[in-house]
């Protein structure tokens, strides 16, 4: 995970390579939007603990999937009919869909668990023995 580059650093990297003023602002703006949620991934020895901060989201609006080592958390927040009928002068919350993911190469599918409490989703992903899928080829 040390080789991962956060999305917001692409702008700084582009500015160091191409020192133009506002050329990259429009299409290299931070990928993070107000609808994104923060996510922490912890290696806890025999399992991974993923904490996703999703305030104001209910259990029915969250989808958690593990597919071949890729853990995806999707939030699909929809407004209720009561919220749609209100006459807002300014509104900074609303409907959005957001997906965050992380690749866990030794994640096991058995024993997965998730819990939502106080706006924080905690997903426990047990580890399995890593299978060697690499074949060494000798060069003649």
UniProtKB/TrEMBL annotation:
InterPro entries on file: A-crystallin/Hsp20_dom (IPR002068), HSP20-like_chaperone (IPR008978), Small_HSP (IPR031107)
PROSITE patterns attached to this UniProt entry: SHSP
Entry superkingdom: Bacteria
UniProt xrefs under Pfam families: HSP20 (PF00011)
Domain SHSP, residue spans: 26-140
Alphabetical list of Gene3D superfamilies matching this protein: 2.60.40.790
Protein family: Belongs to the small heat shock protein (HSP20) family.
Stated name of the protein: SHSP domain-containing protein
Organism: Parolsenella catena
